[in-house]
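Revision sheet: structure tokens.
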Amino acid sequence: MSSKKRKKVKSKFTKLFKPNLSVRIGRLLMKNPVMVASGCFGYGEEMSKFYSLNHLGAIVVKGTTLEPRLGNQLPRMAETPSGMLNSIGLQNVGVEKFLKEKLPFLKKQKVPIVVNINGKTKEEYVLLAKKLDSCDDIKALEINISCPNVKEGGIEFGSSALSAFKIVQAIRKVTKHTLITKLSPNVSSLQLKEIAQACVEAGSEALSAINTVLGMAVDLKNYRPALRSTTGGLSGPAIKPIGLRVIYELHQVVSVPLIGMGGILSVGDALEYLLVGSAAVAIGTGNYINPFLAFEVVNGINEYFQTNQIETGSDFSNRFKAWDDCKL
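Predicted:
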């Protein structure tokens, strides 16, 4: 067979081959592994002007609290090399307004909705979970125990295995929704593994990682921190190596699905996360740089799997080889 005929046959076979991109996270079923990260997509209304949100695997809405929050004082965002530093402080409309004013739009979309929940105390997390439990249009809760931009709650609960266990266990008792726990990179590798195992033991059906990395920027012209809160969370391409390392390490110690995030700006970035152990990926800061990014990543993963004859995400991750397994 000539080279030209072989190319035609391969091209025809590639077009016929249809990868199965669906992913199950607990009881949350997604048609593809691409989510949008909490805080970087709002409630989806603005982004729906760029493309149909039905194209996505799932939408994780802006972090939600019991009461409305104005967030931290300005300035609360600063550009950094290969990244962005933010200290928004969980500005949001509060759970009641979310249910009445934001959820109706989301319910019209043919895409699973995940609500990221935050609280100052264990009791607040529990109350939030109870309020959201009766809403069948919400398919999962993402428990944020890793936000570095608030003075109370947030990262305090994600800094030890015991406190993380207590929070997840308390929420698990009051909700039927799938639980995802969002982990912080601002602890040691050993602590992170212990916290992850504790969350799973307490009832978390999946883990998402990483949240932003604690950092600081300086306004040299005015001799002060660039952010009013002094420190903030670093996101963007600068943290992708940390995110990949965390997912790889977590994949070794827990068996629940992992949602990888941190610095995804291209199809290749997303594929790297899937290769090292993520069942799904979430796109955050990249949405600000390219509003079409999540849409492009969905198509890009499908095309890559199709071209390389990869049927599922697990088939793809099985191709990953640590150096010990490589034949040099």
